[in-house]
Amino acid sequence: MAGFLQTPPALGDAWRDDRVLREALHFHLGDDAFAAAEPELAEMGALAVSPRVLGLARRAETEPPVHVPYSPWGRRVDEIRLSDAYVELGRIGVEAGVTALPYERSPLGERVRIAWAGLVALWGPSSALYTCPVAMTDGAARTLLQHGGPDDVAVVERLTSRDPGRAWTSGQWMTETAGGSDVGGTETIARVDERGRWRLTGTKWFTSSTTSEIALTLARPEGVAPGSRPLALFRVHRTLDDGSANGIVVRRLKDKLGTRALPTAELELDGALAHPVGDPRAGGGVRLIATMLNVTRIHNAIGSTAYLGRALAWARAYARVRRVGGRLLATMPAHRATLADLATDYAASMALVTRCCELMGAVEHGRADATDARVLRGLTPVTKLATARWGVAGVTEAMEAIGGVGYCEDSTIPAIVRNSHVNPIWEGTTNVLALDFLRAAQRDDALAALAHDCRDALARVRDDDAVAAPAALAAAALDELEARAARWDDDDRAQAGARSLALGLASTYACARLCLQGAWAARRGDVRTAAVATRLARRGLVPPEPPPDDGLGMDEPVSPQGASSARAVG
Ligand code: MFK
Fold first, then answer.
1. For the CA atoms of the chain, what is the radius of gyration?
2. Which residues pair with residue 252 across a beta bridge?
3. pLDDT tens by residue, 318-338
4. Structure pTM?
5. Using CA atoms, how far apart are residues 128 and 125, in angstroms rounded to an integer?
6. CA of 228 to the centre of ligand 1 (A)
7. Residues having CB within 6 Å of any atom of ligand 1
């Protein structure tokens, strides 16, 4: 059949062609460590976009897990069958070190988390969301190392192995029917049996990577008070040492918008054997599992950023081959402006993620002071919430840039869009994270620490011609955000403004980091990151503060004074 046939876009090498990722890693690692890390990154960059791996990812996305509750002869088995393509993608990641690298002796020392972030960013968008078990496994290993006892050492060795034959993954069973945002409503009860062992009974409502060998979970020791403080943390194994079931019944698999290769289930714990992490009678399980949450939130941010980078790479590949009216899309001003905005969001996300990983590595290697730890405490929720929102908006824009074919499943773009949508929900929604930041600001001085760190970065470049203008705008934005938070004289006002504060801080902090990196790159002859900082700053760093509650959120009647009458009465 004659007629027009569009030349297909060709995805370039994920490492070689991603200047933003390469430069961010080079800047944060320095010349020698970058040279040391590059071979593994280059290998993964080529592998991640190879026809074999992209084919595995495509197949895994179309072969969702299957729950087989009973054997042919009626015995309860609760088998979950996974796509072998998904399992193979996991094997590739584990062998490459996506779980092991930060726990190995590395010549990169405390900077290993920066190189590791690059590895996960390259592999992640080709992994059909195997990044989810990897995130939880990393979080569990860190939590057990920090808060566990001698029994946990062998488990950590499994969680951090590069050998697919030995490597375990971990789940995180936090969410119950009361919801992920109300952990204090946890109903699972922990009881001591006649042999002095802890056993859990209750329902876990969202358990991802349900086939993982272990999980960390919260439960309420029998007889303690309600609320979150008395909750205790436990390690639970899917099967017992003899291979028999551990009192865990799969109610059903969740039918999700995306993350389709990844099993997510509702579980009934029916006296499941559990190993306490710390002293269960002392409570404080939420504080202990927060270690895991902070790790998985950084993984979440890497995932959002990496998907945005992959979608942008597809959009650029398409722009290089698509002609409209005889002109390549890549040369058309409207399209170039749209892609430049996407490129700005991608670089801003990358700046936040690499800074988080720099601090995370320093904390993990005992090289951080108390201020660094406070910066990381504040930066983690800010980075997670901002990258997730920029990611969803960005991959949707990239899909639009590719047009109708990008909306079709066989282009693989819809899977990117669907999977990105989990990021603002998984591990805390935007508002939950904004409120988390607010608490960190109030309890741990995280806003002051973040602002101090941001000003420190800006002071180092304010006289540098390449970035002086965006640095001045970022400094003014920071003043405005701090003044805004200082004006909040009651809790309702602070909570209503928390999201805009967190998003403003994300843009401002990213701009400051891009100024620092941009000045460094400009000295080496590349002014593109300085241009990104300028574009980001000119776009406006501070979102408007929400006006006083006028009832419009719930469409309640508005009183003549402008206050919601429903609120005035209630
Ligand atoms: C890819 C998979 C796809 C599957 C689909 C996903 C669907 C969605 C599945 C989900 O449900 S994901 C949601 C998972 N859940 C969360 O992300 C939890 C969200 N909620 C929070 O983060 C709350 O802030 C939190 C539960 C932690 C607060 O609980 P509380 O009971 O109000 O505790 P509080 O008093 O704020 O903190 C208790 C202690 O923990 C305090 O320490 P102390 O005991 O020493 O005072 C806090 O300082 C500490 N803490 C809390 N958050 C922390 C933290 N410490 C460090 N970092 C943090 N982030």
1. 24
2. 266
3. 999 999 999 999 999 999 999
4. 0.96
5. 7
6. 10
7. 129, 132, 174-175, 180-181, 183-184, 206, 208, 228, 259, 262, 264, 284, 286-287, 290, 293-294, 422, 425-428, 432, 436, 439, 443
